[in-house]
Specification:
With about 220 residues, the protein is mainly α. About 80% of the residues lie in helices and about 0% in strands. α2 (about 10-50) packs across α5 (about 95-120) and α4 (about 75-85) packs antiparallel against α5 (about 95-120). The longest helix is centred in the first third of the chain and has 40 residues, at about 10-50. It is flat, with a radius of gyration of 21 Å.
Length: about 220
């Protein structure tokens, strides 16, 4: 029992490696901010194109969502980071991770948005238009607020997945939380830094998971 504690829950090693963990957490936070904010905006634009009556907008958006939902994010990340240099395009680890996850998550956000918009009845559109609102005003002031409320749990769930997805950035040596934890493990020959990283992820994500469950129960009621 003592050997397990020393190998996985060594408080001395955890305390010594905590600054490195916090440095990795800061990088993870920056990556999440970039991917989530841009993904929410990009996903909305793709969703609006997806429901457009114009084929030149609708068809490319459908192809985009199908391709980037089908491609594994790790494959996409390695292709962008290791494959593009063969075409003369050099890209930093942070930019490669941000771009790969942005493409992947924009496609998922787009499908969530689209489902939310389609969940708003046509009567809402017609009622808003009858008051003199333009189509754009109806969409922004009447339809989108209801659509986002209807799919808020799904948006939050997808955001949780984005945070967990950032751990894949370690494969391109980006110094995020998991990469730093693994570096600390290799230096200390002890698994406690990995346990500390897992605990940090748990502290950050568990409240969000509970919030998603609460929203889902409210919508079900």
């Amino acid at each position: 029992m003592q050997s397990i504690t020393d190998q996985f829950f060594n408080l001395t090693i955890m305390a010594k490696t905590l600054p490195l963990m916090l440095s990795g957490l800061w990088m993870t936070a920056q990556l999440c901010a970039a991917v989530i904010l841009l993904g929410l905006v990009g996903g909305l634009l793709v969703a609006l194109a997806n429901i457009s009556p114009r084929a030149w907008l609708r068809i490319p958006s459908i192809v985009f969502t199908d391709i980037f939902r089908a491609l594994p994010p790790l494959v996409l990340l390695i292709f962008i980071y290791s494959g593009l240099p063969f075409a003369g395009v050099e890209i930093s680890p942070f930019a490669a991770v941000a771009l790969a996850f942005l493409l992947n998550n924009s496609s998922y956000y787009a499908e969530v948005y689209r489902a939310g918009i389609l969940s708003v009845g046509k009567g809402q559109w017609e009622a808003a238009r009858s008051t003199g609102l333009t189509k754009a005003q109806t969409l922004s002031s009447v339809v989108l607020p209801q659509a986002i409320r209807n799919v808020l749990p799904d948006l939050l769930s997808n955001t949780v997945e984005v945070v967990k997805l950032t751990s894949l950035a370690s494969v391109v040596s980006l110094s995020e939380l998991l990469y730093n934890a693994n570096m600390a493990r290799s230096i200390t020959y002890n698994a406690s830094p990995l346990v500390l990283a897992a605990l940090i992820y748990l502290v950050i994500l568990w409240p969000v998971v509970r919030l998603v469950s609460r929203f889902q129960r409210k919508l079900a009621a």
